[in-house]
Specification:
The complex is a heterodimer of chains A (about 190) and B (about 325). Chain A has about 190 residues and is mainly β. Chain A is built from 1 helix and 16 strands. The chains are: A mainly beta (about 190), B alpha+beta (about 325).
């Protein structure tokens, strides 16, 4: 893997730090008029998601991380692994529960996800920002409860539970923002 | 379409023009003479933390774009020209960021017989005048380098060992895959503390830098561990660097040789010592104090901007 000099630092660059792949979130050039120049960066660990501050002496070089973001179609889960297919090469990849994480709550066959590959293997999976899922179970809204914004829990076909407005019924398809896990709207099925 | 448009707004360009007039009035009222010295010279600074742009002329002789007008101005002083100032372009290689542009404008001046207190005061006067009524002018602090450390981490810089500095550097997130000297770690720790602990809405004059960071400042007569050097910060932004000038030509030569040794150890380009500055100081540099203020940064703060590029007609990215 290529290495990068600090003068090539910019947000989005993937580098190796202490054996883990990181992405640069922010890069700031710092130099006292009469002193050594530094690059102060915020980096996010691609395995844990944690953001940390690090400073490099300007001119130093850092090993690049073999990380790629690839669009993949979700195929199925066998309970232990989640299987995806690269949209362009048709190559299949299996991701474990750590890589899929919270995204597993929203994945439905055929959905296209952003899969981060590290050394060729899935490191993390981001569900599409919006997904449309069917409600498999939800109690009817209590009559007379017309308070603005009142909600009730609903279980989705993927097993996830979200809060929905009282007028939403079992069997309906709804749109959800996966970044917040919130109900967005009802989907009228053609 | 190329990025042909100016990086500064018309309002900021107007502020820049006004500020230049203010600078000239400031020095004119104080009887300081404006001078111009060459931007291109046959010699450059030996400072290991400053890199010059170089080019060859038609006879293939190496030339340098100046990184500051200091040497030429000192030669004028040695020749008997009294109090002088200059507003000029300076160039520093690989210094690019929100508060750095490789080509920038410096205000530099020298005052005969000035003490550290006097030159600090005059620097603050100019800065306050150019900032106008601003959040930064609420308080003006004077703090020694040692006291700044005490204020920030409850320990004076003088009380910190090499090992302490190393531990602080690690604690503050310095990546140390490649070798780093003690001096470089001190720079990192100090820059970190300036960022975290400098009073945000005040002007701070930090003075009595450690003797190892004297640059071309005189060593304090009472305390050989500190130099008659100061910097002015506006919030955490470094605006000025000044000295009660080292006049002794022999000590000057020693410092230049030390710079060259550091350059060698870091694998940096060899830089010849400027013989004309040495000869001028052998002839006799009068006792004086000098300071350089980064004009673009000062203007950036005066215009409430957060990037120097926003007060420059065109910046490095589209020059």
């Amino acid at each position: 893997m290529a290495s990068y000099n600090t003068n090539e630092f910019k947000s989005g660059l993937k580098i190796m730090l202490d054996g883990d792949p990181y992405t640069i979130v922010e890069n700031e050039f710092v130099k006292p008029g009469k002193g050594q120049a530094f690059n102060r960066v915020k980096v996010r660990n691609l395995k844990t998601g944690r953001v940390v501050d690090r400073t490099f002496k300007s001119g130093d070089s850092v090993e690049g991380a073999d990380v790629m973001e690839v669009e993949m179609q979700y195929l199925y889960s066998d309970g232990e692994q989640w299987h995806f297919m690269d949209q362009t090469t048709y190559e299949q990849h299996a991701a474990d529960a750590t890589a899929v994480g919270e995204s597993s709550k929203w994945l439905k066959d055929q959905d296209v996800c952003q899969v981060t590959l590290y050394n060729g293997a899935p490191l993390s999976v981001s569900a599409p920002n919006f997904v449309e899922l069917k409600i498999t179970q939800s109690d009817p809204g209590v009559k007379g409860d017309t308070a603005q914004g009142a909600t009730k829990p609903a279980t989705l076909e993927t097993g996830a539970t979200v809060k929905v407005p009282l007028f939403i019924e079992e069997g309906e398809v709804i749109k959800i923002d996966t970044r917040t896990g919130e109900y967005v709207s009802r989907v009228k099925e053609g | 379409m190329s990025n042909w448009q100016p990086t500064a707004s018309l309002t900021n360009l107007q502020a820049r023009a006004r500020a230049l007039t203010q600078v000239r009035e400031f020095f004119s009222q104080r009887g300081v003479l404006e001078v111009e010295t060459p931007l291109v010279g046959a010699h450059a600074v030996t400072d290991p933390n400053i890199e010059s742009f170089t080019f060859a002329d038609e006879q293939a002789a190496q030339h340098y774009l100046q990184t500051s007008p200091e040497y030429a101005m000192k030669r004028l002083l040695a020749a008997g020209v009294p109090d002088i100032y200059q507003v000029c372009k300076c160039f520093r290689k690989a210094e690019q960021g929100d508060v750095h542009n490789p080509e920038f404008t410096m205000i530099e001046w020298y005052r005969l017989g000035f003490t550290l207190e006097q030159i600090m005061q005059e620097s603050v006067d100019l800065i306050v005048e150019l900032l106008g009524k601003q959040k930064y002018t609420k308080a003006i602090n004077y703090l020694s380098y040692n006291d700044f450390f005490s204020h920030a981490i409850d320990v004076s810089f003088a009380a910190l060992s090499t090992k302490d500095i190393q531990e602080l550097a690690i604690e503050y997130g310095l990546q140390q895959d490649q070798a780093m000297s003690h001096a470089q770690m001190v720079d990192f720790v100090c820059a970190y503390l300036v960022d975290k602990h400098m009073q945000a809405d005040a002007i701070t004059c930090m003075y009595h830098y450690p003797a190892e960071q004297a640059a071309l400042a005189k060593i304090n007569v009472n305390d050989p561990a500190v130099a008659e050097r100061f910097e002015v910060f506006c919030g955490g932004v470094e605006l000025a660097n000044g000295y009660v000038e080292l006049v002794d030509a022999n000590i000057l030569l020693e410092r230049f040789k030390k710079d060259q040794a550091v350059r060698r150890s870091r694998g940096l380009d060899y830089v010849d010592i400027d013989p004309r500055l040495l000869d001028a100081q052998k002839h006799g540099l009068p006792e004086c104090a000098g300071v350089a203020v980064g004009f673009d940064r000062l203007l950036m703060l005066a215009c409430n901007e957060n990037r120097v590029q926003h007060v420059m007609s065109f910046s490095w990215s589209n020059a």
